[in-house]
């Protein structure tokens, strides 16, 4: 009797749509990171935490880059920035607007790029004619998420840069006649924010054509390296010096996704560390923090190699969602400065990749798929909430990103030939 009941229960659970497990993951994090800290505080008072490290006036990063662009427009001199020199060209039109109007413009441009990146481009790359429930769930939760609000508060342009990158991926795989434009858009994204460079590995149509792929990567690499010197050698050297000094001055903070910052945060958060590490061990790890940093980087590199090998071994054709999602994780955790406002484009990455990784519309599922969808949903949805709403052990989002990376890597190893993408025509 028990065996029959268990068999029927397991068959019923496995027959549930994957969206049920995805939604359940979202519901759990909603309870833990929204309901609990706001309504169930021990003070018996509804809590209104300042969940963003705000700077007044609003739009600090935009105001800085716009002022530097204005100075360059009127004097011809490029002052050091934390970004590639091309950003001065990109933001030069804001020299003719007030800072208030300019911030309003960049905010609505960012909103428009978010909509394109989550609702339009994924449908085109995935050959989908409709906006399904999964897309709507990610779109709505992402647009009200902590990361996207952080992006708007700073006046950052990660979403804009990523929109150019996603558009280039679409053109490369679905519109081969316009690959010249794909390369241009990809280069613009790299020159706005260096991190999209890792997505060059997504611009592969046939993993067995390694000579052609190497030529493409070398060509894009040389072009973008030369583009860094568009204003001469002095601006880019000054930028590199400013970036290095800025990286060194930022310690372990919960809203920096980088492996370096997470390691320092992990080792300096008393309530997080000391329950399972004694003081002497913490002191040793702090003095040799590169050990933990190397461990996290090694995990990423191993997963990256496995995903690339699976793409090559199974001769993946066209857009490869596993490679794309792995590159996205690398774009978050590898740079030394990677604040949570970069999570603003993570919903687009999820919509681009997950429908190709999980059978969202199929009925019967395996335990691996069911558990992968559930855990991935919890990990992703946990990034939608501020570190202020989380306990110390999971305030930083790097562990959640690594969980997604490991799940994607595992699923890439069991992918079937049916997961191959047809070559774009």
Give the tags:
64% helix, 425 residues, disordered C terminus, mainly alpha, single chain
Distance between the termini: 56 Å
Q: From N to C, what is the helix and strand string? A: HHHHHHHHHHHHHHHHHHH
Quick one: biggest sheet? none
Count of β-strands: 0
Structurally, the number of domains stands at 1
Q: Which percent band covers the strand fraction?
A: under 5%
Shape: globular
Uncertain spans:
418-425
Mean pLDDT: 88
- Helix % is 55-70%
Rg from Cα:
22 Å
Structural class: mainly alpha
Describe this structure in words.
The structure is a single chain. With 425 residues, the chain is an all-alpha fold. The protein has one domain (15-47, 57-419). Helix content is 64%, strand content 0%. The chain has helices spanning 2-15, 18-39, 60-75, 86-90, 99-125, 133-143, 146-154, 158-174, 179-192, 210-227, 233-249, 259-268, 270-273, 279-287, 290-313, 321-333, 346-357, 367-382, 398-413. Helix 5 packs antiparallel against helix 6. Mean pLDDT is 88; it is low at 418-425.
């Amino acid at each position: 009797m028990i065996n029959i009941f268990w068999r029927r229960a397991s068959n019923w659970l496995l027959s549930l749509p994957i969206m049920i497990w995805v939604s359940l993951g979202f519901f759990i994090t909603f309870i833990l990171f929204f309901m609990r800290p706001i309504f169930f505080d021990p003070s018996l008072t509804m809590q209104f935490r300042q969940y963003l490290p705000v700077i007044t006036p609003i739009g600090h990063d935009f105001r800085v880059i716009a002022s530097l662009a204005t100075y360059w427009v009127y004097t011809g001199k490029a002052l050091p920035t934390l970004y590639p020199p091309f950003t001065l060209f990109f933001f030069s039109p804001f020299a003719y607007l007030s800072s208030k109007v300019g911030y309003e413009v960049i905010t609505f441009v960012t909103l428009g790029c978010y909509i394109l990146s989550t609702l339009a481009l994924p449908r085109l790359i995935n050959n989908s004619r409709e906006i399904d429930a999964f897309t709507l769930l990610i779109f709505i939760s992402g647009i009200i998420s902590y990361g996207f609000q952080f992006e708007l508060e700073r006046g950052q342009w990660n979403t804009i840069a990523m929109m150019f990158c996603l558009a280039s991926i679409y053109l490369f795989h679905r519109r081969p006649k316009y690959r010249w434009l794909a390369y241009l858009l990809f280069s613009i994204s790299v020159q706005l924010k260096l991190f999209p460079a890792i997505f060059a590995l997504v611009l592969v149509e046939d993993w067995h054509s390694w000579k052609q792929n190497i030529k493409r990567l070398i060509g894009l690499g040389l072009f973008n390296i030369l583009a860094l010197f568009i204003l001469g050698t002095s601006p880019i050297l000054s930028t590199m010096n400013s970036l290095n000094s800025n990286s060194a001055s930022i310690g372990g903070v919960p809203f920096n996704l980088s492996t370096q910052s997470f390691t320092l945060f992990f080792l300096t958060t008393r309530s997080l560390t000391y329950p399972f590490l004694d003081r002497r061990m913490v002191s040793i790890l702090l003095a040799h923090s590169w050990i933990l940093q190397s461990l996290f980087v090694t995990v990423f590199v191993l997963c990256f190699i496995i995903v690339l090998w699976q793409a090559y071994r199974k001769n993946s054709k066209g857009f490869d969602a596993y490679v794309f999602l792995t590159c996205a994780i690398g774009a978050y955790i590898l740079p030394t400065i990677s604040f949570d406002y970069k999570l603003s484009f993570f919903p687009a990455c999820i919509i681009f990749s997950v429908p190709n990784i999980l059978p969202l519309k199929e009925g019967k599922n395996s335990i691996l798929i069911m558990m992968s969808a559930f855990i991935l949903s919890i990990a992703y949805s946990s990034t939608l909430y501020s570190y202020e709403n989380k306990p110390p052990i999971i305030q930083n989002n790097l562990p959640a990103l690594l969980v997604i990376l490991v799940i994607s890597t595992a699923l890439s190893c069991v992918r079937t030939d049916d997961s191959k993408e047809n070559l774009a025509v």
